[in-house]
């Protein structure tokens, strides 16, 4: 089983949307996927309750209680964890000890850049991170076309010496689908496939599968 943690201390950066999108992509590809909600807001759990039995199945895990962390069925191929906003100290150690990769979404704003820089610095205090046992993948999220070449955004990535693995455009369709327990990977129409392709570099970074996605 490979475990993917979606985490950033900055609220509103798109953690839950990233978690449900990645989980759905893997489930639609045919893998057995579990989605663990470690956030007290329960956004991921609410999304899973809305999800129809007619679409790719995703196992629901409630990890809001720290005693539940690590409790996962043995037959799962991929575990995606939606971390709480305040992930630090023992909780961070516990979640990261379960993880093979950390996806950190951030938006092109001053507050996201400042908060994410602090978060990345905190991660370096964790032994498993320092030893290079966990991949850290930045995801530029909710990006408007004019923001891609923003000097502040480019300067930030130079300072942290960490380029984003993918750039995800801001789209209203994410929220519209989430209200139905769905994500963009539940649809095969061209307009959804065009959006799905933005996620391909991230999927390639977390999964070794050379078969065609789209």
TrEMBL record:
Superkingdom assignment: Bacteria
Short name of any one Pfam family annotated for the protein: CbiA
InterPro entries: CobQ/CobB/MinD/ParA_Nub-bd_dom (IPR002586), DNA_Partitioning_ATPase (IPR050678), P-loop_NTPase (IPR027417)
Residues covered by the CobQ/CobB/MinD/ParA nucleotide binding domain: 4-152
Protein name: Chromosome partitioning protein
